[in-house]
Amino acid sequence: MAEEKKLKLSNTVLPSESMKVVAESMGIAQMPEETCQLLTDEVSYRIKEIAQDALKFMHMGKRQKLTTSDIDYALKLKNVEPLYGFHAQEFIPFRFASGGGRELYFYEEKEVDLSDIINTPLPRVPLDVCLKAHWLSIEGFQPAIPENPPPAPKEQQKAEATEPLKSAKPGQEEDGPLKGKGQGAVSADGKGKEKKAPPLLEGVPLRLKPRSIHELSVEQQLYYKEITEACVGSCEAKRAEALQSIATDPGLYQMLPRFSTFISEGVRVNVVQNNLALLIYLMRMVKALMDNPTLYLEKYVHELIPAVMTCIVSRQLCLRPDVDNHWALRDFAARLVAQICKHFSTTTNNIQSRITKTFTKSWVDEKTPWTTRYGSIAGLAELGHDVIKTLILPRLQQEGERIRSVLDGPVLSNIDRIGADHVQSLLLKHCAPVLAKLRPPPDNQDAFRTDFGSLGPLLCSHVVKARAQAALQAQQVNRTTLTITQPRPTLTLSQAPQSGPRTTGLLKVPGSIALPVQTLVSARAAAPPQPSPPPTKFIVMSSSSGASSSQQGELWILNGEKAM
Amino acid sequence: MAALAEEQTEVVIKPDPEGPPALPATQPGDCPGEGSGGSHNSSHNGGGGGGVAASSAGGDGGTPKPAVAPPAAAAAAATAAPGGAAGAPAAAAEGIASQDRQTLLAVLQFLRRSNLRESEEILRREARLLEEAAGAGAPGEMDGPGAEATSALLSRVAAAAGPTGPGPGSGSGPGPGACPASAGPAASGAGTGNSGAAPTAAAPAKVGVVAVEDQPDVSAVLSAYNQQGDPAMYEEYYSGLKHFIECSLDCHRAELSQLFYPLFVHMYLELVYNQHENEAKSFFEKFHGDQECYYQDDLRVLSSLTKKEHMKGNETMLDFRTSKFVLRISRDSYQLLKRHLQEKQNNQIWNIVQEHLYIDIFDGMPRSKQQIDAMVGSMAGEAKREANKAKVFFGLLKEPEIEVPLDDEDEEGENEEGKPKKKKPKKDSMGSKSKKQDPNAPPQNRIPLPELKDSDKLDKIMNMKETTKRVRLGPDCLPSICFYTFLNAYQGLTAVDVTDDSSLIAGGFADSTVRVWSVTPKKLRSVKTATDLSLIDKESDDVLERIMDEKTASELKILYGHSGPVYGASFSPDRNYLLSSSEDGTVRLWSLQTFTCLVGYKGHNYPVWDTQFSPYGYYFVSGGHDRVARLWATDHYQPLRIFAGHLADVNCTRFHPNSNYVATGSADRTVRLWDVLNGNCVRIFTGHKGPIHSLAFSPNGRFLATGATDGRVLLWDIGHGLMVGELKGHTDTVCSLKFSRDGEILASGSMDNTVRLWDAIKAFEDLETDDFTTATGHINLPENSQDLLLGTYMTKSTPVVHLHFTRRNLVLAAGAYSPQ
């Protein structure tokens, strides 16, 4: 018996130096070593005794955490006066300091200015205890309501997704395993959990889990209908509510496949119809799904990525490419893709490297229209500084030439001009902070021009600006905390400095598998080119000026979400 | 049985060769109920012995407001039985006296021979002090509670020595001397004692301390720990035995392995006691890893104990020295061990086996490892077999017949048509059920119960009505669970109770408050003030409605009065009172009419962990850190019974449905069942591997479910005194247990934030309680936890503190949301 459960108990004692320190603090200068030793033994023993008693109070108080009051009560048991003034701290704020070969833990006592305390407004009164009732289970089934934990915890969803071969014991009812995951999880699942023994061991032949359709209850069907309608409907308030529900509700697991299909189909249809608003709504749904902490999305990423990628690189996303702000959608979707990469990319699925490859391919292609070009660059740029450094910076000169040829050359197409203009500002926006970090400070217009060609001067001024901002940032950072010695200058400049470290490995991994999105993109590219609208006199920087009011509202929301 | 008779002779071997001093706790002729209960606790708390009524009046400083009738007048009923019980001990003490005097003389001689002047001195002083019954203050006493209290204590100790088996040290030593002096008060206490076994609130906290502090001086000398073996040899002895046991036959190995832990502990303590600090440390280091994991808590205490001075006042340690560790070993294995030890001349170990272990020898096949593992784990080994032999009346009391006219009245009041037809047949069925007397039920008047009031009858009728609407539960029809979450409790919720009719919920909090919520639309109202009451027309029909003050109506009432966290709460069955027990050492009785405190019951002096009303009201039980459970009646400010015997805190207390028994679960990892009538311990259940935190009786009174910190729920057959099931599944302390109204489902709630439902019918279904099992106590538990588990329901980081089945079998669960 003992072999399986070895105990490890060691008799730890306070170091006798501690006794010396305490004695010194009380004015006893020279304490003989022997006394110290005796004292440590005694004190250690008493402390342990008290700790053991305090534990009792913790258990009886139905808590998992020992509090200072437990120790007070334990002292009281021993007829010792409790320590006053150590109440109501979530954690005991001991600080550690070392120096001169000594290590010390001390309780930091700040000097408090009384007038400060008097003058500060009183804190809010804590809420009083109240009683709230909910159904933990209804006739054996746990309803999926926010008061209950998510019916299928993420790990369980994952286990199911990654090990679908796990079969149940024979004899146990096999029907509706998916249902079992959801509501029945609880009823059947005490058993289910124990069944995890590998079936091979039991000598049961491997069985594939029967493929079955998710059976949605009537309530779930209603919910699905309501949510999807609200998401693509016209009422913004309803939409916000629906998105909130998607982002927070714990019980959506079973509806996930439907949502995923809804989004991918929706994108497919609306890209063809150039319905910008709907595409935006759908992307916001993707965002909400990704924000929901209880969902295990891995199983559906293959459906979501093509949809999102389409929204980034599609040649045309709206009916009037010259006026509608489809650029914002591309930006938003690019950030989503970056988020997907960050969350779901692993060494086995290589999502990030495959996505990067796709972007690079379409960007490098000479015939790529400016819209797709913009999307590719945005997508790459959102993947992080390393990607910008390795993939975008080397091509700046080439791209700059192309932009110059459009902007300075004869006005062939207004759409091209707008596109080139956007690409230029996009490049400036993303590259400047990276350059500010990479290049040593003296920012020389000429040096930039030689390195980056026609974009050089503009880049230079942006880099200068970025530096100034970084310095400002660093100052603020320095002022607030002492610990951070390395300020992060990119904090404010780029909205999504995601997956920094991960991108380093990206180029080494050959991504030979083409993503489905590629076909989608190429299909788009092969589509007959849109007739260019008649050239106009005005070249507007902000092309959203002409957009319809409803779309403007959308874009505003998109921009609002950028901050998230 | 022949085995039994023989076993007696076998036991006789054990009185150790050296003389009587070290074995105070177990005498063969002892009352079986007490068994290992002869700890220091039972002695200084008076056990079941006679209390000293006289001293209580003097010593009790803060007598609670007698909101109820004075004890003398109160409940003459309650006194009848105790009087008789208390008379016996006095006589017993007398009988033992002469024997004990000889013992004392022998001890003194022995001490002189071994040149232990000091100890002899102490003992003499002790003895003289007792003879004179003088109040000079006992030696070693700390801030003594005064002469009166001291003599009271001592005489009480002596008196207690009679029935409970003399306590260690002070029990056996002073016994004879004390006799003349103590028998008097004890007898008079019994004579006058209307509160029977009640030892007194007067013995204040100090008494416990005194006794504890006192004992080491005497018992330390008496104990065999001062034998000077060669400290360096200890490791050799132990590993020698280890080698022997590991090389023995498989069938014996499991049994003999039980020896490891007690031997380890005692050898370690011997080393520490004799101040071989380094040897002790290395001994501990070397062998503590071999011990079973469930002894970890005790080992942790031991590991911190490295000096002789620490042994004084360390309770865990005292338990080891004062109570014998009980092992159950087959005769063959025992012979094997004996032969080995004699061959090897291994006196050190042999002495420990003789003096500190109680080996319960049985004939027949040695037990298997599983059988042993199921039963061990408690702080003092397994229960002796005799300890569970007493008859227990586990049947239910006959339900009082409720007359039809009352039904009709109720019908009118309720204004419900069609009810009478439905009701009558049902009432008949109820009647017929209760008419045939359960053969296992105690006599109806075994303990006096309060008369049913009209309101109680009304409630019973309501209950019956609800019963007709009750859901028949089963594996295919699981109950719904309604969870009451305490929000913003900031980890301060420490106790919850729900009334039987599920209309009120009480919560005890760490901030010393008790809060009562109404969960029905009916709000909580208090009675009007006296002046307003005098204006009411007393003849009016709705006088009960009129006395309530509408202005005070609210959903929540807060009861202030405790000065420490409230660890226990219990509603009276008639919903007029609420009990709460707290860290401040009191149990308080609150009125739910006026929402004020009526009585503070003082007696525990240490935190009171749990309290519960009897299912018939009037009586209640409380248990606390002072290791005893006390039985009280609401109109007595002193306890009626003290249930002493646990070796550690009494964590939870529950009444048997027939109110004749009380179950207590303790941190010593045992569950005990006590007879309310005479205060005897009638069952000791061992097998839990952690402190017990929850208890539940099945509605038919036959079974008991217990839950502990080890996350297991164990099921016990009370009649046979056997473990009948083990429910594994929880991963943390099981804090709440409850059977459904018809006993089909057992619900358990835990600190691991789950509620689990178990199939109780199946668990109790085919119990093979054949004579053999009953006689030997060998059990074979089926591994069927998973088949019995019907459902697991996770809460959102909310430990499940309380569970309750409504009359219609809906589960109410409660706990405080504690964000991580």
List its salient traits:
heterodimer, A: 564 residues, mainly alpha, Histone, subunit A, Serine Threonine Protein Phosphatase 5, Tetratricopeptide repeat, two-stranded antiparallel sheet, 23 helices, extended, disordered C terminus, B: 820 residues, alpha+beta, Methylamine Dehydrogenase, Chain H, four-stranded antiparallel beta sheet, 29 strands, 20% strand, disordered N terminus
What can you tell me about this protein's structure?
The complex is a heterodimer of chains A (564) and B (820). Chain A is 54% helix and 4% strand. Chain A is mainly α and 564 residues long. Chain A has a two-stranded antiparallel ribbon. By secondary structure, chain B is of the alpha+beta class. Among the domains of chain B are: 230-367, TFIID subunit TAF5, NTD2 domain (Serine Threonine Protein Phosphatase 5, Tetratricopeptide repeat), CATH 1.25.40; 494-815, Methylamine Dehydrogenase, Chain H (7 Propeller), CATH 2.130.10. Chain B has 26 helices and 29 strands. In chain B, a hairpin with a 3-residue loop joins β17 (661-666) and β18 (670-675). Mean pLDDT of chain B is 72; it is low at 1-96, 131-222 and 404-434. At the A-B interface, α2, α3, β3 and α7 of A face α12, α13, β3, β5 and β27 of B.
Q: Architecture of the domain at 494-815 in chain B, CATH level 2?
A: 7 Propeller
Count of DSSP E strands of chain A? Answer: 3
The biggest beta sheet of chain B is recorded as: 4 strands, antiparallel
- Name the biggest interface: A-B, 55 and 85 residues
Distance between the termini of chain A: 55 Å
Radius of gyration of chain B, in Å, reads: 27 Å
How large is the count of helical segments of chain B? 26
Beta-strand percentage range of chain A: under 5%
Biggest sheet of chain A, open or closed, and with what strands and sense?
Answer: 2 strands, antiparallel
User: Helix and strand succession of chain A?
Assistant: HHHEEHEHHHHHHHHHHHHHHHHHHH
State the CATH topology of the domain at 218-459 in chain A: Serine Threonine Protein Phosphatase 5, Tetratricopeptide repeat
The CATH superfamily label of the domain at 218-459 in chain A reads TAF6, C-terminal HEAT repeat domain
Approximate helicity band of chain B: 25-40%
Write the CATH architecture name of the domain at 218-459 in chain A.
Answer: Alpha Horseshoe
Structural category of chain A: mainly alpha
Q: What's the level 1 CATH class of the domain at 218-459 in chain A?
A: Mainly Alpha
What is the average of the pLDDT values of chain B? 72
Strand content of chain B: 15-25%
Oligomer: heterodimer
